[in-house]
Design goal:
Layout (H helix, E strand, L loop, with lengths): L2 H11 L1 H6 L2 E7 L10 H20 L6 E9 L4 E7 L26 H11 L3 E6 L5 E8 L7
Parallel strand pairs: 1-2
Antiparallel strand pairs: 2-3, 3-5, 4-5
Helix pairs in contact: 1-3, 3-4
C-alpha cells in the first residue's frame, strides 16, 4: 500500500480537529515511494496517535502559529521513513515515552505510544522519538517496502 495515501486519509479524517485548534499541517511526502508492507487500519491508528500527540503538545505549550510537519521518504535501506514533527515543549526522555502507562498528559493513560510501537514492530519496522531544537519533538517510524519493489 502507498503510505502517502494513508497519510492523506488521516489528515483528511482529522481536518476538523486540526482546524479547530488552529494548527497548520505541512506535508513533505516523497514522490514515487515504493509500496510499503502495511495494514492500512493499523497505520491509520499509528498516524492518528502521533498527530494527536503533536497537537496536544503544541496546544498546551505555545501560543501563536502552530504547525505540524509530516514527512515521508525512502531511507537508504529497503524501508519507508515517516516523521511527525511538532513544535511543543519537547521530551526529556525519548525512550521512556514508549513505556506502557508512562504519560506526560494530565488526562493520558500512557498506552498510545506503547501500542504504536507494538504495531510498527509487528510490521518489522521501528518507532523512535527525538527532541527538536529549539523546541518540539519528532516521532519517526520505518516500515519495510513490499518485496519485489525497487529499494
Amino acid at each position: 500500500m502507498n503510505i502517502n495515501d494513508v497519510i492523506a486519509e488521516v489528515c483528511q479524517l482529522m481536518m476538523d480537529e486540526i482546524a479547530m485548534k488552529s494548527i497548520r499541517i505541512e506535508t513533505d511526502l516523497g514522490m514515487n515511494l515504493p509500496l510499503a508492507f502495511i495494514d492500512r487500519v493499523q497505520m491509520q491508528q499509528v498516524l492518528v496517535n502521533l498527530i494527536r500527540n503533536g497537537i496536544d503538545a503544541m496546544e498546551s505549550t505555545i501560543s501563536g502559529e502552530k504547525s505540524l510537519r509530516i514527512c515521508s521518504r525512502q531511507d537508504r535501506t529497503s524501508m519507508v521513513l515517516i516523521e511527525v514533527q511538532d513544535q511543543g515543549c519537547g521530551i526529556e526522555d525519548p525512550e521512556r515515552i514508549f513505556e506502557p502507562f508512562f504519560t506526560t498528559k494530565d488526562q493520558g493513560m500512557g498506552m498510545g505510544l506503547a501500542i504504536c510501537r507494538s504495531i510498527i514492530e509487528s510490521h518489522d519496522g521501528r518507532l523512535w522519538a527525538a527532541k527538536n531544537e529549539p523546541r518540539g519533538t519528532t516521532l519517526s517510524f520505518t516500515v519495510p517496502v513490499r518485496a519485489g519493489d525497487p529499494a
